[in-house]
Amino acid sequence: MRDQKRQKKKGPAKLYSFLLALCLMAGMGAYFAYAAGTGADNQKLHNGSFEAGQTWIGNYQQRNQSLIPYWNTTATDERIELFMANSDYYISNVTLTPKEGSYAAELNADEESTLYQNVNTLPSSVYEWGLDHGARNGTDTIALIIGPQQSIDPSKPSRNGRDQLMQMVDWLIEHGKTSVKTSAGLGEQLTVYSKQFGASGTFQDNADDN
What we know:
Layout: E1 16-23, E2 31-37, E3 60-64, E4 72-73, E5 79-84, E6 86-91, E7 94-96, E8 103-106, E9 115-116, E10 129-135, E11 142-146, H1 164-174, E12 188-194
Antiparallel strand pairs: 1-11, 1-12, 2-8, 2-10, 3-5, 4-9, 5-8, 6-7
């Protein structure tokens, strides 16, 4: 990411804009999500409730992303954890219930990562998307990041590394550009510019690591 006050003219490197809607309060617990959207069939969020292709029963399963249509993860093991409504499984006397259908996703399963989907859109069109998020216990943070699809998918350099989208949020926090760690961060919208995504959590043409 580039601080605009320090930006140098160094040739035709392209910057890509990402709209970040940071919501809820800070925390590092487990997150559960359900998403929905409206629009033409090829221009909407698909499999928002994670039902497609799922027939298993039980408390939870960690499934390869290829088995959960339309969704991808930056987790190095390529696994997305789904859970079903259950009682006393995660927390004593707490029942976790998906907003719609039988399944919901835990955003961080065995490692901190990003769950994402590529959606077709048309210029000058308005889309309505909804996202339901809940904490396993206490208060958690979620960052909803919307931006152009990259030629290289977001990724992490290692299990404990940070993908490009996570680095954007880290950068905002480090530079005091977001109040996401306080209640004032609720519903906050910010725009971040970055270079194109590279392999293993890097940004292309970014030798100065700026």
